[in-house]
Amino acid sequence: MNLTSRLKTIYEKVPTGSSPVDVGTDHCYIPIALFKNRKCSKVIATELNMNAYRKAIETVKKEELLDVIDIRLGDGLKVIKPGEIDIVIIAGMGGTKIINILKSSPEVLKHTNLLILQPMTAQARLRHYLLNSGYKIIDEDLAKEQNRIYEIITVVRGKGFVEDELYYEIGYNLIKEKHPLLLEYIDQKIISTRNIINSIRKSNSKTVEKKLNRLQKRLNKLEGVKRDVCKSSNNNANN
Predict the structure, then answer these.
(1) What is the mean pLDDT for each group of 10 consecutive residues in the chain (239 residues)?
(2) Which residues have CB under 8 Å from 193's CB, separation 6+?
(3) How far apart are CA 226 and CA 32, in angstroms?
(4) Among residues 106, 108, 120, 202, which is most buried (max CB within 10 A)?
């Protein structure tokens, strides 16, 4: 089974020999790959949506793995018992939804070693929650599919912090490691921020003015990071 770039990046973060749960598994592609490639001998998959749950059952049945991949119908981690798993994978959901899933199952999370998270939206909000809830970020990655770039955030228990609020939005590790997709990712955020600014500039209310000021500061920081990354890349090319 060939995984997409996004799913393959997530798959590669899972430690060999671990016992993961894939929350919101959809077609169950990651659990299947983990078992077939002998990375994990025990995998649980959960799915809240009945149609997606049936698709997962059908896909796993075709692979003749129903006896080794445990697919459960239910909300997030609520169908997991404490101690059953040590790795949590949550991919393809909004950052706010991921936060709610984590908040709802503290007893399960006490027994986990690693969270592998791929938020579709609200990445800054998710990072802020994690770093203020007893987690530290140990790895950040990007994956591109078609014209969209996705973030994958890996965290463990520990004390985390950021030196600048911008790092809630663009992970410090991505900048530090000079990720090959970083400039393109920053450009996407710059374009998005400019579009938002242009769409609300016509209003003269004080509320909008304050929002414009915040967005302009955000845009300035993004452009500053882009300049720094470009400068660093040019220096490396000249050495």
Answers:
(1) 93 97 96 96 95 96 95 97 97 97 97 96 95 96 95 96 88 92 95 91 76 90 89 68
(2) 215, 218, 219, 222
(3) 39
(4) 108
Alpha helices in the chain, H assignment, sequence order = 5-13, 29-36, 50-62, 95-103, 106-109, 123-131, 166-169, 172-176, 182-200, 206-238
Enter the tokens of residue 151. 């973030």
Please check whether residue 224 lies inside any domain of the structure: yes
Instruction: Report the chain's C-alpha Rg in angstroms.
Output: 20
Residue 135 sits in the same domain as residue 98: yes
Asked whether residue 176 is domain-assigned, the answer is: no
Which stretch of DSSP H or E encloses residue 119? strand 114-119
**Is 72 domain-assigned?**
yes
On whether both 162 and 189 belong to a single domain, the answer is no
Query: Quick one: which of 194, 193, 140 has its CA closest to 167?
Result: 140
Length of the chain in terms of residues written: 239
If asked whether residues 142 and 220 sit together in one domain, one would say no
Cβ-count burial 14-53 (b if 16+ within 10 Å, e if not): beeebbbbbbbbbbbbbbbbbbeeebbebbbbbbeeeebb
**Is residue 177 included in any domain, yes or no?**
no
Q: State the residue range of the domain holding 201.
A: 182-235
